[in-house]
Amino acid sequence: MDYATALAHLAEHTNYDLTGRINSPSTERIERLMAVMGDPQHSLPAIHITGTNGKGSTAQMVTRLLMAQGLTVGTYTSPHLERVNERMARNGEPISDEDFAEQIGSIADLELVAGVSPSYFEIVTAAALRWFADVAVDVVVLEVGLLGRWDATNVVDAAVAVVTNVGYDHLEYAGPTLADVAREKAGIVKPGSVLVLGETEPDLAPIFRAAPADRVYERDVDFACVANSLALGGRVLTLRTPTSQYEEVYLPLHGKYQGDNAAVALTAVEAFFDAPLAADVVEEAFAEVRVPGRFEVLGHRPLVIVDGAHNPPGADSCVGVVFEDFEPAGRKILVTGFLAGRDPLVMLGALRADDMDLVICCTPDSPRAVPARDSAAAATALGCDAVSYTDSVADACDAALAAAGEDDLILVTGSLYVVGSARPHLLEHVATDTGTG
Questions:
Q1: How far apart, in whole angstroms, are the C-alpha atoms of residue 398 and residue 409?
Q2: In angstroms, rounded to a whole number, what is the distance separating the alpha carbons of residues 73 and 288?
Q3: Measuring CA to CA, which residue among 324, 363, 321, 365 is closest to residue 344?
Q4: Longest dimension (CA), the chain
Q5: 337 closest CA partner among 354, 357, 360, 321
Q6: What is the strand order of the sheet 358-362 is part of?
Q7: Residues 236, 229: contact at Cβ < 8 Å?
Q8: pLDDT > 90? residue 295
């Protein structure tokens, strides 16, 4: 099977990212797939990460901390921005097209043996776990795709389970209360493991304490980000873990919330080793963290930022960083689009669109996209003064660049599909036209 055939094979299977639907939520299909492979996931030490927001950033921090300890690390994340290969990486390098095709081809053969018709996500998850076993990584870092208990990644028996936070998301599968969502996320905690809990809501704590972990470390009780200040290109943090305190650690990511993610990640890695880390190892690791598409600055004159915020809590955090950390002097231009299942009025409210000088709505490249004209109508209803729309993400970015002066801000957000289309276009355009890259 070549790469194009592998992509075509995946396209024949149910894909939540495209449909917004999951048929028969269960781990039964992937368990059968893994069983005919001999369950390679059981030989892979793992750190498993769930949460409403912050999973991707936390996974990258955990990966860098493990790499700085000299381990070979397999990282599985979702969704991807531009290419599906991004979802599985060895020491930060995505799988090659050739290896990806080989793994998908192998899983395609095993579908017949196992007698199952798996989803897109289940196939890619099985392929990632098979590849990690083939290349003999020392440890796997897995980001949950959806909630936790019946997510395909939950076939692993992780030594450390991480919950970054719990918010109102995916309520069609875990509603209607936060407690319901918390119970689903607690489903990744396995007997004998360590749970690192980033959520601080007191009413949810008993749900996680009842999970079958040997130990539970709670943020602001057992660990914390105790100092968090703005720095050029990121934050400077002081992080307290159950064993140590790490002073003045530089993290090249924007947003105060990344300090909490850093505290979670560091505690998770300490729990994995059951020991503190050397201060220089921590400094080296965090300095190398990069999370494309997550509050990423692509240019400076004008200031161009992309952020994959795709739910109201994420949108609120995103715009908070814009107004609090960057304090743009010029006009503020918002380029945004949404997927079905997100109320455009709620998302635009969370993005403080009515505080923007210009809102340009676009249609994400997805069958689940909310049409740009509907998002624009919601922006007008919210009270935004200047609103326009176009079906093309690239055209929306071009319109924003044409309207922006050197002191202005362009924020592109609302969906990872918007950011995935906008990022390569902007990188080429910004690098060519402004020299900021």
A1: 14
A2: 15
A3: 363
A4: 62
A5: 360
A6: 296-300, 303-306, 409-413, 332-336, 358-362, 387-390
A7: yes
A8: yes
Kindly list the structural domains of the chain, giving each domain's residue range(s) and its CATH number in brackets, ordered by start. 3-287 (3.40.1190.10), 296-433 (3.90.190.20)
Contacts of 115 (CB under 8 A, 6+ apart): 32
Give the three-class secondary structure for 218: strand
Question: How many whole angstroms separate alpha carbon 95 and alpha carbon 74?
Answer: 10
In order of 56, 247, 349, 355, 392, the CA distances from 352 in angstroms are 24, 35, 5, 5, 23
Phi/psi of residue 374, nearest 5 degrees: -70, -40
Neighbours of 230 (CB within 10 A): 14
Distance of alpha carbon 253 from alpha carbon 17, whole angstroms: 26
User: Which amino acid is located at 331 in the chain?
Assistant: R
What is the C-alpha to C-alpha distance for residues 61 and 258, in angstroms, rounded to an integer? 10
Instruction: Give this prediction's pTM.
Output: 0.94
Name the helix (H) or strand (E) containing 227.
Answer: strand 224-231
Q: Which amino acid is at 259?
A: G
Q: Can you tell me the distance from the alpha carbon of 136 to that of 91, in angstroms, rounded to the nearest whole number? A: 12
Please tell me whether residue 410 adopts helix, strand or coil conformation: strand
Residues 151-189 pLDDT 10s = 999 999 999 999 999 988 767 777 789 999 999 999 999
Copy the structure tokens of residue 186.
């607690």
192: left (phi over 0), alpha (psi -120 to 50) or beta: left
Q: Phi and psi dihedrals of 407, rounded to 5?
A: -95, 5
- The DSSP H or E segment spanning 399 is helix 393-403
First to last CA, the chain: 37
Q: What is the pLDDT of residues 13-62, one digit of tens each?
A: 987 777 666 767 899 999 999 999 999 999 999 999 999 999 999 999 99
- Alpha carbon distance 84, 107 (integer Å): 16
